[in-house]
Automatic annotation (TrEMBL):
It catalyses: L-seryl-[protein] + ATP = O-phospho-L-seryl-[protein] + ADP + H(+); L-threonyl-[protein] + ATP = O-phospho-L-threonyl-[protein] + ADP + H(+). This is Serine/threonine kinase-like domain-containing protein STKLD1. InterPro entries: ARM-like, ARM-type_fold. Keywords: ATP-binding, Kinase, Nucleotide-binding, Serine/threonine-protein kinase, Transferase. Signal peptide: none annotated. It is an enzyme of class 2 (transferase). It comes from the Eukaryota. It comes from Loxia leucoptera. Its EC number is 2.7.11.1. GO terms for molecular function: ATP binding; protein serine/threonine kinase activity. The keyword tRNA-binding does not apply.
Length: 313
């Protein structure tokens, strides 16, 4: 009430946020802090010129959301909160350090399907892509933005197909830039999978995207989630085009079928990874030429091995 009575007074908003922040360590205060997110974001929107207030507000929201995620509480932030966050993003789009914090906040917010949908409604995708282009070197920003893109694309109702399609080259650029960084590469592979599922790639994207995903698998063979989502992305591409299937077989850096075998033997205890590999192979054998090649690579032996390993799945 103290904050709502004086929206225009920056000192009041700053004091209010600082006072609320003093309750973060008190676990019994958490349910009450949950009700304050709208007040905090609105204070940030009204006083966007004050970087100190933005940082303090953002830090407090991160604390509240972290506790919510730890306790399995879903924060279904409404459109007005999403709009306030977008306003803050646009106002401070050049401030790399603050954006890094803000993008982490957006990633946590987008864990909720409702909140992700509200971020999409207010038109945040072009802003995310603009941030990625500008700060392609920043692994933290790239990780957060790709995670948000994944959340927005999987909850997408296809209303923004053209906007999402423009995310393909940017996401590919992130993956190319951070191939050796498993955490970022994993997020980029997941985003590409969601974009492929939504049919956002064009004919000219299939071959280079397949080659890039294979590179990601080769560079990060031990990361189970990356391998799983990379294979699901490849399966989505192969479903759309034989070109992608042939690109996997004839990749200049080595046979994709050999890579499939290697990944299975690395993750043979992981049902999720094995299922993704099987889905990819199932899509590949839909094309006669590809199936013949896979037979010559003795893929039936691998499939028998998988069947023996997972007899009841």
């Amino acid at each position: 009430e103290f904050m709502q009575a004086s929206w225009d007074v920056e000192e009041v908003q700053a004091e209010g946020i600082q006072y609320l922040a003093s309750f973060v360590e008190d676990k019994t205060a958490f349910p009450h802090l949950l009700t304050c997110t709208e007040v905090i974001t609105l204070a940030m929107k009204v006083h966007t010129d004050s970087l100190d207030l933005q940082v303090e507000g953002c830090t407090l929201l991160l604390e509240i959301l972290s506790q919510a995620l730890e306790q399995g509480v879903t924060m279904d932030l409404d459109v007005s909160v999403a709009s306030c966050l977008l306003h803050t993003v646009r106002k401070h789009s050049e401030n790399e350090e603050f954006l890094s914090m803000l993008c982490t906040l957006l990633m946590m917010v987008s864990a909720s399907e409702v909140a992700a949908e509200n971020l999409r409604k207010v038109g945040i995708i072009p802003d995310l892509l603009s941030i990625l282009r500008r700060f392609l070197h920043n692994d933290k920003i790239c990780f957060s933005c790709c995670a948000v893109l994944w959340s927005l694309a999987v909850s997408e109702d296809n209303a923004d197909q053209a906007v999402l399609a423009s995310a393909v080259p940017v996401t590919s650029a992130v993956l190319r830039e951070h191939l050796h960084n498993g955490v970022v590469a994993e997020a980029a592979c997941s985003a590409l999978w969601a974009l492929a599922l939504q049919g956002c790639l064009t004919d000219s994207d299939y071959e280079p995207t397949a080659a890039l995903l294979l590179d990601a698998l080769r560079m990060n063979p031990e990361r189970a989630v990356l391998v799983k989502n990379g294979c699901l992305a490849l399966a989505s591409l192969v479903r759309l085009s034989e070109t992608a299937a042939l690109a996997i077989l004839l990749d200049s850096k080595g046979s994709g079928t050999e890579l499939i075998k290697e990944e299975y033997h690395l993750h043979s205890h992981e049902p999720g990874v094995t299922e993704a590999l099987c889905l990819l192979m199932n899509e590949m054998v839909q094309y006669d030429e590809v199936m013949l090649n896979m037979r010559s690579q003795k893929m039936e032996k691998l499939l028998s091995e998988i069947k023996f390993q997972f007899p009841f799945s």
